[in-house]
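Please check this:
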Amino acid sequence: MRFDVVTLFPEVMEVYLQTGILGKAQESSRIEVHLHHLRDYTTDRHRTTDDEPYGGGGGMVMKPEPIFAAVESILEDSQGDVPVILLTPQGRVFDQAIARELAGSERIALICGRYEGVDERIREHLATDEISIGDYVLSGGELPAMVLIDSVSRLLPGVLGDSEATEKDSHTNGLLEHPHYTRPSVFRCWEVPEVLLSGDHARIAGWRVEQSLRRTLLRRPELLDQARLTDEERGILEELMQAEEEDSK
């Protein structure tokens, strides 16, 4: 998969993209990440990318000309439709389902906003999608772009060493992941749960399911409304809910 990122600050993204899983994924050609400096697509001597908003008000607005020029130039040789995603707090909130959706694309273009925002004509006539990583405001779209690239890349074949790793992640089946422990078995008098040391894989699997359900119930109960649960899991959840009700009395 290829990611093309249009940004005013490519340097802030370079180190993270070259590190860890994303760095290895690029070395093995599982993904390509191309950072495009927006100022390279300006035409005036000051390399202007923003201007004052019509109608007054504080802040500056990113101009349409360089962003249109950048995206159209970058995608000039593309085959088929390429998602052009504007990273903005006004977009649909990014989640694992959207990550899986985007993982089916061969190429994605990302526009990183800055300042007060972008000229509305970019939303209306260039971007095909708008994505937010949460209900808060950041200084620009670079962090959201890295979040999206990281999350989507993990779902691509061969990017992770364990081919089943993403199936165990939080939110994959609508639940939070179970707790994890490693050596030592006792740390500052805190012991690893006995079941994990038992070698009984059936018991361990059952414990993990129960813990995943318990953690979701306590921390993110709203996720349970959409979670894909088996009959066995629903039975466990009902028992956990009854226990919680009794404890609260």
User: Anything to note?
Assistant: The CA atoms of residues 195 and 203 lie 7 Å apart. The chain has a mean pLDDT of 94.
